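Journal club side-thread
Mid-discussion, someone asked how the predicted structure for our own chain would compare to the paper's figures. Pasting it here so we can look after the session.
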Amino acid sequence: PRHAHLRFLTRESPPRALCFVDPRRFGSWRLGDAWQPERGPCVVSEYQAFRGNVLKNLGDRAFDKPICEALLNQKYFNGIGNYLRAEILYRLKIPPFEKARTVLEALKDQEQERRKKDPSLTLSKKVKLKQENPDLLELCHTVPMEVIMAEKQLFDPEHSDNYAAFKNWLQCYLVPGMSSLRDRNGRTIWFQGEAGPMAPKGQRPRKTPRKKSPQLKADPEAPTPKVTPRALKKHRRAAANPPKSEEKEEEKAEEADRPRKGRALRRRKATAAPALPEPEVPLSIRRSRRTSARRGKGAAPAV
């Protein structure tokens, strides 16, 4: 597979491979049969030792930090990573920046009270109570176990939808609608509700955006039209002078087709009364009119 930095091949045919896959190169490989000295008991395979190691060392300065930062301390929470801490705190509704010692000392007190009240509880009843009301240390064991038990469905590379199944399993980490902040180590923690009294100052919780409704995508092969200055001017003129409604245009067309009242009346009069011939004027009268007109055009007589 990709990012397999170390491969052990079997001698069978066809060979199988045991690979160390690390896309971000966070890990390292050392020969040996035990955890590194700075790591505590495993939260999955050594649960009782892990629980005792945490409750026994609550005076350590590591528990002066917020609970979200303490959960990444591999000396006490060996195996808990970024997405697991978000899921664990979300299920218990614990603010991520609550002081770690405050959260864990409450578990210690609850455990002592439970033993005093019900010393005769059978193992099956104790298991049932823990399943119904798990505490933070129990979820540090059961939540990773959920991932391990569902590994074939969540992480099997042969399943094409393995990442989709993992995303459906997540309840808080990278889930839309959740808030997020960066802790003092630069790691992002997702949560819901209040951040807690030890939240870093100067930061505001960011909301993970919700999914938008699907929209029609433009054809990538379609050429984008070029916008020229002339086209921009036309667009501005059209916006400044919006086209009139269709009804007004139709009314104008009808008015153009209708005959005007004045013209129609004249046509009617012309057809009703035919023009009469003009009376003939005698020749002597016409000559006298011409001579008078000529005299009027000339200069005025001297007085």
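Post-session note: The mean pLDDT is 78.
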